[in-house]
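HUMAN:
Sorry, I am quite new to this. Are you able to go through these amino acid letters and fold codes? The numbers rather puzzle me.
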Amino acid sequence: MSLATKLKELALLFFKLGTIAFGGPAAHIAMIEDEVVRRRRWLTREEFLDLLAATNLIPGPNSTELAIHIGHRRAGWPGLIVAGACFILPAFAIVLAISWSYVAFGKLPQAAGILYGVKPVVIAIVAQALWKLGTAAIKTSLLAFVGVAVALANFLGTNELLLLLLAGVVVCLARFGKHWLTRKASMPAFFLGLGPALKGTAAATGLAFGLGPLFLFFLKTGAVLFGSGYVLLAFLRADLVEHWHWLTESQLLDAVAAGQITPGPVFTTATFVGYILGGFKGGVVATIGIFIPAFVFVALSGPLVPRMRRSPVIGAFLDGVVVASLGLMVVVTFALLRNAVVDWLTLLLAAVSLFLLIRCKINSAWLVLGGACAGSASVLIGSA
């Protein structure tokens, strides 16, 4: 197959996913797995899990970095750029349109009906993906124990990155003991110190707005931000609201809502913030700034993933990170479940979607569109 054909396939797939991937990183990962592992067979489930583990060890938006990894694995450096850009572009365009509406009319467009129907479908998609990925990742009782322990610890509030690193270390210690300790790397300590060290670099006084400082702020944020898109809220509030006074609390909450009600990466919240502050140019600058680090980190780490798997010690570390990643997804799914299944209709949508995924192997994109239509129709009927 020619490079041009591979790039076309990558562009079409990730543009489609970027258009219909509601529900946050866990849902995005589930949809990507369905397409590249089950339907297209570009990766084995084990290879997919290794890439997922790698994205959890670097800063930035996990689902976007997973798309970039797959693009690189499929079509080299051109594939890396095409897959990532096509996954980001639809959400960028949609958030720009929402931002224009917000500035022009002073409020966000209504999307309650769409989200009402899509959320239970997303739960079914994530549940199916967790089951399939779990059966491939949990090879021993130790890995099962680590996955459950991580889920419980995260549910009680323990930091995600700390749990990922501890899970890798525990599995390494269990397999290699003293041998591993004599060859330990400084990478976990480096990552543990990086985020807190750089997070608080903002000046404690007001700063005049400009496209340059806006770009640098989002570049820094994309380079140090671990965790879910919700962690982004803390970064935005600390600098843009409290220190620099570029945004009000109300505008910040509207920006986060814009990232949540649109498909694709939650990091397109930056697009909304940039547009409010600097119009179209501000939206473009903020988006480029926050996503550039993801491309750089994947470009640097992507070639190392196969070599890491070939090393027994690092392979054991990856096994621990993989099951920890799935444990974190379980916690996110539980939180989504409580928010998504709120009545008999949403329960029915979740159950039917899960049945269609398992028995009929229907494409998840059709289920998302069906859920959006059902949710919109329900809200319209209820308001009539």
Summary: Residues 255 and 273 are 6 Å apart (CA to CA). Confidence is low (pLDDT under 50) at residues 180-204. The chain has two domains: 3-191+298-383, 204-291. DSSP finds 17 helices and no strands in the chain.
